[in-house]
Write a structure and sequence with these properties.
With 242 residues, the chain is α+β, with helices and mostly antiparallel strands. It has nine helices and eight strands. Helix 5 crosses helix 8 and helix 7 packs across helix 8. The structure holds adenosine-5'-triphosphate and magnesium ion.
Length: 242
């Protein structure tokens, strides 16, 4: 049974240069910020770089744990991985619906909601323009208890190419990463049933820790613009600085 997932660098004319290297950077930032994140490293196989991702859906004995991505958990077609504003207007926030399906099956519903808000906040500030419903998952324990899977497939794609600025899920009505304020993250989480103070403390604490971590972990050579763009947006959106 596999213990790792290998994501090789695209062969020719890479659609997005530095993608796997900056995915490794983002996952390392998440880890250094104390968030639950899949462990990654970059390796070279036969001259071709690849991201090596440790599987989180295995026990220490190598047994498989069940996981469901958010599309599966909500019974959505995989093609509907990006939440549209029309779905949001018809059915309400997809994140809220997910929290309502999952939190009550978690050991501690409040912890589940805080974990979800931490992951959503991370993906916004790190510029992950691909944080759709197949890039978040639930993990089920052998006893059927639900928890949020560690972060995976998170990369600063918006800071590599500004066309990829979508939030994936609608956040308090917002769909562009560069339009999401701290207040939007808090309001979205309040709609899931999180107390205002808990939501605000969670968002601020993630922002402060990610700010520190992003400044302590070096970007791969050639991708230094990620840091400049992240700082420009951070100042513009008045996200929390420690
Ligand atoms: N560390 C991990 N442990 C267990 N399962 C994982 C892990 N990382 C990813 N997966 C699973 O594998 C799937 C594909 O991985 P990932 O999202 O990283 O690849 P991708 O090719 O970038 O996907 P896409 O472009 O469709 O978003 C994920 O949707 C998830 O279900
Ligand atoms: Mg993915």
């Amino acid at each position: 049974m596999s213990s790792h997932i290998i994501k090789p660098e695209p062969l020719s004319g890479a659609a997005m240069p530095h993608l796997i290297q900056t995915e490794h950077w983002a996952m390392s930032v998440a880890d250094a910020a104390g968030l639950s994140a899949a462990q990654t490293r970059v390796e070279i196989f036969d001259g071709r770089s690849a991201l090596v991702v440790a599987r989180y859906d295995r026990t220490s004995d190598g047994e498989r744990l069940h996981q469901e991505d958010f599309c599966q958990a909500l019974g959505l077609d995989p093609d509907a991985k990006y939440e549209s504003t029309s779905e949001y207007e018809r059915l309400g926030s997809r994140l809220r619906r997910l929290a309502s399906v999952a939190a009550d099956r978690a050991i501690d519903p409040q912890t589940f909601r805080v974990d979800l808000l931490s992951a959503v906040t991370f993906n916004v500030i790190v510029g992950n323009g691909d944080a759709h419903s197949k890039n978040y998952s639930l993990l089920l324990s052998r006893r059927g208890e639900v928890s949020l899977a560690p972060l995976y497939d998170s990369a600063p794609v918006m800071y590599l190419d500004s066309r990829f600025r979508g939030t994936g899920h609608v956040i308090n009505g917002r769909t562009g990463i560069d339009t999401v304020d701290e207040a939007d993250l808090v309001a979205e989480a309040r709609s899931w049933g999180l107390a205002p103070r808990v939501a605000q403390n969670t968002v601020r604490s993630v922002m402060a820790k990610v700010w520190d971590a992003a400044h302590s972990i070096a970007l791969p050579p050639g991708a230094e613009q990620v840091s400049d763009r992240l700082e420009t947006l951070w100042v513009r959106r008045q996200w929390t600085v420690p």
